[in-house]
Each structure stands twice: as structure tokens, then as C-alpha cells.
Amino acid sequence: MNKLVTEEEIELVAKFMKIDVHDHKEYVEKVHSMIDFFNILDSAGVEDEEIIIADLPLSKLREDMHIPYEDNLIEKLKNFKGNYVRAPKMI
Amino acid sequence: MTKIGLEIHCQLTKLESKLFCPCKANYRDNEPNSNICPICMGLPGTLPRLNQKAIEKATLIAMALNCSTPEKIAFFRKNYFYPDLPKNFQITQLNIYGDTSIGGIGEITIGEKKIRITRIQLEEDPGRLIYEGSSSKNQITLVDYNRAGTPLVEIVTEPDFENPKQVRDFLKVLSDLLENLDVSDPSLEGAMRADANVSILGGNKVEIKNINSFHDLEKAVHFEITRQESLHSRNIPIVQETRHWDDQRKITISSRSKEGDLDYRYFLEGDIPWIKIGIDVQEKLKSTMPESIVSKKERYVKNYGIPEQVAEVLSSDKYYSDLFDESHNQTNAKEISNIITTDLMGLADTREKREQSKLNSSHLSDLADAILSGKLTRNSAKNALYEIIKSGKELSTIISELDLGNVSDKNKLEEIIKQVMLEEPQAVEESKSNPQTINFLVGKVMQKTRGKADPQLTLELLKKNLD
Amino acid sequence: MNLKISALEFIEEVKTGNISVEDFISATIDQIKNIDEKLHAFLHVNPESVEQAKKIDKKIKLGEKVGSCFGMPISIKDNICIKNSKTTCASKMLENFTAPYDATVISKLKEQDAIFVGKVNLDEFAMGLTTEFSAFGPSRNPWNTDYVPGGSSGGSAVSVSAFECVASLGSDTGGSVRNPASFCSTVGYKPTYGLISRYGLISYANSIEQIGPITRTVKDTAFLLNIISGLDPNDNTTIDSGNADFLTDIDSGIEGKKIGVIQEMIGDGIDPAVLSATNDAVSKLEGLGAICEPVSIDMVKYSVASYYTITATEAGSNLARFDNLRYGYDLPLEGYEFNSYISKARTKFGPEVIRRMILGGFVPSAGHAGKYFLKSLKVKSKLTKEVNDAFTKFDYLVAPTVPVLPFKIGEKIDDPIALFLVDINTVIANLTGIPSISVPFSISNGLPIGIQLLAKQNDDKKLLQAARALETTVQLPEVPI
Ligand SMILES: [Zn+2]
Fold first, then answer.
1. Looking at residues B298-304, what average pLDDT do you find?
2. In chain B, where are the structural domains located?
3. Which secondary-structure segment (H or E) carries C281?
4. In degrees to the nearest 10, what's the CA dihedral of C270, C276, C277, C280?
5. Cα(C186)–Cα(C449) distance, rounded to whole angstroms?
6. What percentage of residues in chain B have a pLDDT greater than 70?
7. Which domains are delineated in chain C?
8. pLDDT tens digit string along B443-467?
9. What is the B155 CA–ligand 1 centroid distance (Å)?
């Protein structure tokens, strides 16, 4: 098992990702083996590689125009109060 | 030494639509959640549709602040969970794979002070939270997403400011510049917000977040310096932290750093290709760039002999300088600059007043011409201006309706003068030994004509009659 | 009613008046009723299908203009939005989500009078390659119901293979169209990245995935591409590929074309039956006049690790929006604070999704991005260079679609690494953006084997010509249902 990645670390990540994880074993073990598998990347020898990304000329982008949405979208969503979306309290 | 750095958030309020969808960029004065669509609500399956003009306007800002502008720009995701963020990530910019932010390193000089710009980035504004419920048990947060996706430009400076005064001077220049570029209306509520970082004596840096107006920014910086100095004088260490500006109490408050805020897992937004802004596009943008405030001022002084100070005031406000540029010609330019800076500024000093004003540029040139040709006294012109702003009527109509025209009819004026001389025999007598007394008599004539008498002619005629 | 016809045959039959749309759709719905309990391809069957068919029949009768699909029954993977119908991504998290808009591909098919007979099964949020990770239960392979149909577009491939529709749309993030197509003996197509709009496809790994057709024949795929491809203002990543009509010249053949056989995909870990099928395919391609030579692509070794790192990162971010506030299931807010509420709400995600989200929180995090995420992007770039290099010498590349035969349900579900390796032949097309197609090629012990052809970016039309050529050399038994 990869000692570089601790169980606590994985639990912390789950917390960051906002998921209550109950069955730790189920997740920690499999996630560990996946991360272990990723270590193969270290031998790919790609350190000097440049990252290539597709690009688009500015002229192809959307024109600045206001077009109102045809429906009253808020009514199709849940949790609303009046016209507001409800969320839990913030601390 | 005190070091202050700023992160200014400026909404591009002059755009029609949001950054990634065709909803209105001006979300103000709308029913809650009525300016939303599947895209800005981050509904599953939707993709950002980047606004071309937003990139152009943001590039103009970068150019005006003398920042480098890259040939290709990239967008990144800043991942964190918050109810005002429909996708739970914000699409923003960063320079982790080379300089791909809309503006790179730049510099602006304010008086003698050089302020270095670190970076300018284009990003989306989140929605707004409203807190409801009094007891903590049944508290609920309400969210209005009308603002979500509004185009926002973030201007990050180096910690080059040394005191709140420099911050204020910079903000003044910056808001004038943004307005002059026609990218934003800084007077709109919430259009300009800022974060600041403050350190004293090379100590720890404190971030202040949540400053919702430029007005408060200076206060917040001032408060924070005082707070840190007070700690320092009592030998209490200044901790590196994030504090929030409480705009009710006008103080900064330590905010517990939230877990999850620690790592935004920035990575490339794959739904938006890198956007090529080639040299040709940049050149084209440059050519459409409005004349800078500095150049306007120079032009006003050089071409029309307008005094430096008047030119400064006139050029730094887009509303006035636009009016001036549309109305003047070589002869009446100076007179128009006078009307604007002495009279109009008092009558159209707020957003609302400007919006309601019916004044246009031809009114201004008419007014100036009437003054120059002696048809109106400056005093009457001021009254006429007041009426024009209110009604928008033609100057000639107002002159006849309010009977503002100069009394420049020699006979009529002579009659009035004779009457005044009869009523004021003592002054007439005195004027023979004391020439100053003549001014008193001019005043009396003005009184009788309600300020409409041509002052030059009045003086002439009085002198003639007294001799 | 003979349901075992291709899309083009269906159109011909309707046009000539040999069949009515209503009869065909009714028979299709009956077929679904009869066999889907066993196969579980469908999550939702469209109750208005027959009514819609009647309307099209009426238009035909009145001589009104009818769209080019003529009421063709199509199934749609349940991660593609159809307005006012449920789109669940086979997740409990979206069990009650009704899409308020149509995906671009859906609008285009609606305009051409296609009938959506239903939404079909997938691995939850398309994360998987067996359809076992559906929150609503696995789909089964019509060739042998003890076996997985592949995934994540398992429901799409099953429904086409078992005559529950004429064609289907799936999505392919790392093989999710081609893998089930291979396992179920159908054609599966992953287009050049940007050829088809992703607007309305619920994102899993948005920088590499594409919607793709699953059909009975290569020509049917070309027909569907004609309808659903093209620039879309709602998707800034769509491209103008310059391909006009994908159907014209589809029978041009491959005489004199050079084909590279990817060595890394016929070595270690390949099932002998798959290897022999691949060798057979190479001979057949040569028989058609092509010149086949071995080619090596070094980065293939690292492609799976790169692929899973990139997909986990993007998934972690793409699925962040599912916080149950604006849409989702009923879970009262009272008594929770924001973080505790959404952390609780998000436990509705299935275990595989949760694992990928944890990975997605880990590999791009400040402390680990350099070791994992950044390196993966660099592998992706280098792989793209190697593949582009190969295309300077070759017109096409060939490899088995999947290195193994379909396996039993439950066989690999607990071994994530074994599952990873099933993807090894398909992920390169996604990482490099090139088009790739799986063509049904042979049956071994009653289980299908597909052959994958790849072409360079924007050579979609040319790729279909090779696939069509290969298809003509194949005679396959009928699916035993
Ligand atoms: Zn919107």
C-alpha cells in the first residue's frame, strides 16, 4: 500500500468534496489502489512536454446581446420561497 | 513601512449580456431570479457561451493600464462550494500555464506615485445571498441568482501603496478611467468592490475581504493600519489572516478560515477553448480605444486655452467631457468649459440627476454663443440652464418664456439709468469724487432689470450720463 | 413486423409505404415490453411514442413534409437531456430531475422526426465500462445475459442489439460508446472532439468526451452524423470539420490505404480469441487492398493512468453542482448548516462515483497536482504528438476495440485496476481527440468481438469509408434472443 497517501488525507479529501463517507474501508482501499496505479506516470518522462490546447479566434464567440429566457425557470426548480432559492443557513 | 495591495473587482456594466449566457448584464431592478437561464443556473448539460465583447472590454482595461495583453487567453475553474455559485466552481483566469490572463504586468502613474499592476483577469460574478430568520435554529439562506454570471474584471496590484491617501487617489483615477473607457459605470451600487492586503513594518500580511464600495475601501485600509499599529505598539503580534469588512460597523473582523477554501483545485476550463486575440485584433481594439483622460486634458489646455484646473475637472468626468466634445467649436470652447464647470456640475452632480437631465450638446453651444454675443448675461444663462435641464426646451423658447433676454436696447436702458439716477442723487453726487460709486449704480440697474442688463453697456451709458 | 432492419432500411420501408410508422413503433414497444425485463436496457419508456408515430403517418398520408428520420425509433442514453422528461444519469441524485431544455442533438433529431422510444441505462454519470454501476441495476448482454454488455453506454448498445430500437445515442468519454458496441456486436462511433455538440450532455469529463451513435450498420452511423454533427453556438468547443455528407462515397473502399497496427494493443493481456480476430481483421483489410504495417505508440502504456487522472479531476468539478439546492431530491434544509447539508445530500451518489470524486479531489490538489494531474496533461500532449506522427505515415490505425471478451456480471466489479485495463485500447482516441469506430467483427464462444479503426482529427468521413469496407467482409450470426 502506498504510504505516500495517508488514510487521513483521503478522508480529508472526501470532506473537501462534500461527501459524508461512512464505509471508510470501501473507499480508502480502492482509492489507494487507484492512486498507486497512477504512480506509473512518474516513469513517462514527460516533464519537458508542453501542454497543447485547442484555440478559437475571438470573432467566433457569441455577440453581446440580451435574449431573455423564454420560461420562468425558477418555477421549474425546487426549494424556492417566493422567487428565491432556499439554501441552508451559513455559519 | 506600510504596504497595501489591492484586488479591485469591477463589473462590466456597459455590456448587454452576461459573461456566459444571453441574460442581462444589468441585473439590478429585477424581481429575484427573473434574470436567469439554464446556463447561468449551471443546470446539468449546459455549457458556457463566452461573450465576445466582454473580452474586448476587458482587453481595453488592460491596455489602458499599460498591461501586457497575451495573444491567447485561457479560462480556469476555481472550485469551492457556496450557495451563490450555481456550478460550485467559478470560471476565472490564472497564469499557471504561461501568461494567459487577459492582462499581464502593467503600471500606472498617479501624480508621482507608480503603481504596478500584477494581473487583470476576467471572471463571472456569483449570485447574492439573503439571510433570513432570527433564531439560529430556523435560519434559512435565500439566494437570488440574477447577478450570477455578470462579467467581472479583477485588477490585482502589487503592494505599492503606502497610505490610504494613495489608495484614494488611485481609486479616483481608476474609476474615471473605467468610465472613460465606456466599460463600466462606477456609480452603480456594487459595480466596484475590492479586497485589500495590508502589512506594516514588513510584518505579516492581512487580507481584508468583502469591501463593497470604493468609499469603504479607503476606510477599511485606514482602519486596518490603525488596528495593526495599535497591536504593534502593545507588542501584540500581528497574525497573518483574512479579515472581513463589516460595512455596518465600519471595522474589520477576523474570519475563521473555512476548510475547503484552502485548495481551489484550479484547472483548465475545458468547455472554453483558448481564445486567440491576435495582434490584428489588438491593433483594432487600440484604434477604437477612447481618448485617454490625460490626452483630453492636454488637448483642452493646448487647443482652447482652458486653464489647467478646469481642464482637469472637465476631462476626468466622461459625462462632462463627452458633452464638451460634442458641443464646442474653436470660439465657444472656453465659454462652454466655464458653463460646465461652474454651473452644470452643481446641477447634475448625481447619477439620477444626469439621467433625468434633458440637456444636450446643442443647448450648451447655444448658451455659450448667447453669452458670447451678449444676448444673455452669465447670470441669466445659469437660470436658462436650470430650465433646460428640467424641460429640455430650446434656449430661444426659454429666453422668451422667462423673459431672460438682455436689456441691451440703448434707449430702454438709458431710461432705466435715468430713473436710477433720480432715485439715487447722493450716489450720483458722490461718483464725481469717488469713481468706485459707479459700481453701486450698476448694481441698482441690475436690480431693476433682474440681472438682465448688459453689464458692459450699462457701465458705458452710466459713465456717459454722469459726465 | 420485422424489427431486424437498419435505419436506412427502415426509412426506405416507410417511404415506400411497406410499413407504417405506427406499426413499427408499436412492435418496438412490444419488443421492449417482452424482453427488457431480462435485459434492463431502458430506464424510462416514452409513453407517447405510438401517438407520435400516428402523427408522422398522418403527415406522410397528407403528403406533408416529413423529417429524414420518418419516425425512426431511437433510444437515448440517460445523460442526454430531453425537454420535460427525466434525465437521471442512472443516479439516485438525479432521480427526480426533469430537464427544462433539449440537448442540441435532441433538437436536431426532433426536427427530423425521430421518435425517442426511451431513455437507456448507463453506469452512474457514465463512470464505468460495464453498466454495473447504474444505481438502478445493471443491463445484461443480449448475447449471454450472464455477461456485462459493456459500458458506460450499455443500455444504448443492448437496445440496438436486441431490436428495442433502430439506433441509439450514447456518450464516449474513454470508450463508453465503442466498448459496449464491441461487447454487443453493434457499430459504435466516437467522433472527432467537437464534431457533435455536447450541449445537453451531462458532463463527466468534458474536455475529452463526445456524444456518439450506436447503430446496426456503418451507413446508419453516417446517416445519423449527417443529422447531429455541426457547429453549435451553445457549445464553444464544436468545430467546423469540413466534412459535408458522411454517406456519399462511403463505399469508396480502402485500396492502397496504409493502416498501422498498434503494437501496444495486441501484446500483453490480450485474450487469444481477440488477438486472432485482430489478425484476421488485418488480413481482411489487406484483402481489400490496404497495406498494413506495425506501428508503435509509446505513450499508450501511460494513457490509462493519464485518462483516469484527467477524468477524475474534471468529474470532481463537473459533479460539484449536485448539491441538492436548485434541483435534486427531497431532503429538508432545516436543522442543517450548508456544508453538513450538502455533504449529507451527496451521499446519494453511488460508491463508484464517490471513489472518483475522492480521486478528483486528490489528484489536482495543490500538493499533488504536479505529480498526477499536470503529468497526465503532459502525457496527453505527448500521446497526441505520437499519434499525429503515426498519421503522417498511415491513413488509419487499427486495434481490437477491447483487449478481452465480455466478462461475467460481478466478475471485475471489485477490482478497479482490472477494470482500468479494459479501457486501454479506447482511451487514446479521447485523449487525442481523434475519431474512432468499433465495427462488429466476430463471435467467439457466443461472445462478440469488435475491431477498432482510428483516423486523424477531422477525417471522420474517411474513417467511415474504412469501417464500411471492413464491415462488408463480415458475416455474423444473429443475436440469440
Ligand atoms: Zn443566464
1. 92
2. 2-284, 294-402, 410-466
3. helix C272-287
4. 140
5. 10
6. 96
7. 7-253+436-471 (3.90.1300.10)
8. 888 887 777 777 777 888 888 887 7
9. 25
Q: Where are the domains of chain A?
A: 1-43
DSSP H helices, C346-473, are: 351-362, 373-393, 416-422, 427-432, 460-471
Would you call B426 helix, strand, or coil by DSSP? helix
- Residue numbers in chain C where pLDDT is lower than 50: none
User: Which residues are in the CB-under-5-Å shell of ion ligand 1?
Assistant: B 21, 23, 37, 39-40
| CB spacing of C358 vs A20 below 8 angstroms | no
Question: Which of C100, C235, C334 has the CB atom closest to B138's CB atom?
Answer: C334
pLDDT for residue A12:
86
> What's the longest Cα–Cα distance across chain C?
72
Q: What's the CA-to-centroid distance between C104 and ligand 1, angstroms? A: 17
What one-character DSSP code corresponds to residue B339?
I
pLDDT confidence of residue C299: 97
Which amino acid, residue B218?
E
How deeply is B390 buried, as exposed, middle or buried, from its count of CB atoms within 10 A (0-12, 13-18, 19+)?
middle
- Mean pLDDT along residues B329-346: 88
Chain B contact present for C109, CB below 8 A: no
- Identify the H or E element spanning B281: helix B279-288
A interface test, pick of B142, B269, B285 with most A CB neighbours within 10 Å: B142
Mean pLDDT, residues B33-52 = 97
pLDDT at residue B327 is higher than 80: yes
- Pull the grid cell for residue C320: 460539484
C23-26 long-range Cβ contacts below 8 angstroms, 24+ apart: C24/C53, C24/C71, C24/C73, C25/C49, C25/C50, C25/C52, C25/C53, C25/C71, C25/C73, C25/C115, C25/C117, C26/C50, C26/C53
Does B83 sit within 8 Å of C325, measured CB to CB? yes
Domain B410-466, CATH among 1.20.1090.10, 1.10.10.410, 1.10.468.10, 3.20.20.30: 1.10.10.410
Q: What is the pLDDT of residues B115-154, one digit of tens each?
A: 999 999 999 999 999 887 655 555 789 999 999 999 999 9
